[in-house]
Amino acid sequence: VSREDMIYSGAVMLKVRVSDNFNYSVGAAYSKQFFGSVIIPVVGIDWNITDKLSFSGTLPVSEKIKYQLSDKSAIGVNLDLGIGGGSYRLSEKMNSDYLQVQQFNSTLFYEYAISKKFVIGVSAGYNFTQKISQYATDQKVDWIPFNNLDDRGAASAELDKTGVVVRTGISYQF
User: Fold this and answer.
1) How many CB atoms are located within 10 Å of the residue 111 CB?
2) pLDDT tier at 113 (50, 70, 90 boundaries)?
3) Nearest in space to 79 (alpha carbons), one of 101, 51, 56, 100
4) 162: left (phi over 0), alpha (psi -120 to 50) or beta
5) Which of 3, 68, 120, 138, CA to CA, is 20 to 30 A from 153?
6) 135 exposed, middle or buried (CB, 10 Å; 0-12, 13-18, 19+)?
7) Are the CB atoms for 65 and 77 separated by under 8 Å?
8) High-pLDDT (> 70) share of the chain, %
9) How many CB atoms lie within 10 A of CB 55?
10) In angstroms, rounded to a whole number, what is the distance separating the alpha carbons of residues 51 and 109?
11) What is the per-residue pLDDT across 23-58, written as a single tens digit (0 to 9) for each?
């Protein structure tokens, strides 16, 4: 494993507390992907609309509307735009090509706190975009969105399907 096999990401944000119920952040996110370097401006929102209803997210990446049913359970809607998508290096048997995965989905979710720190979640929804493309290792475009990803050339293989998405998991709350 070398430096060329790694993906690096980070964000710098300035958070502004407007009130006890509303905060926003402004900044930029950077990600070194196998298809190039991505930098995007981001705006974070954390808004407790009422004691039970909240809106949070990092625009334009993901947004969530959540309704607290009780101290332990909540339901809501999540929108994940998957800006730029992720990329994964293939083995040397595949000429060290990479896959770019792009998804845009919306889900309904349910969360249940089994303790103060652990939450079980389940969600179901629809992938409006679900695309996996294979590119040669040298097919890159730096500084997206300032340069167009289409400039790297056509994918050698591609799968483009929409469909249902179902997730379940356990998360640890800091």
Assistant:
1) 18
2) very high
3) 56
4) beta
5) 3
6) buried
7) yes
8) 99
9) 15
10) 19
11) 999 999 999 999 999 999 999 999 999 999 999 999
Neighbouring CB atoms inside 10 A of 7's CB total 12
The radius of gyration computed from the CA coordinates of the chain, to the nearest angstrom, equals 19
Cα separation, 141 vs 114, whole angstroms: 45
Residue 83 confidence (pLDDT) above 80:
no
- Measured distance CA(75)–CA(132) in Å, rounded: 30
Q: For residues 74 and 55, is the Cβ–Cβ distance under 8 A?
A: no
In angstroms, the CA 32 to CA 160 distance is: 24
Q: How far is C-alpha 90 from the chain's CA centre?
A: 21
- What is the chain's length? 174
Taking the model in full, what pTM does it have? 0.85
Q: Is the pLDDT of residue 84 over 70?
A: no
Pair 129, 106: CB distance under 8 Å: no
Question: Helix (H, G, I), strand (E, B), or coil: what is residue 94?
Answer: helix
Q: Which of 128, 132, 78 is nearest to 108 (CA)?
A: 78
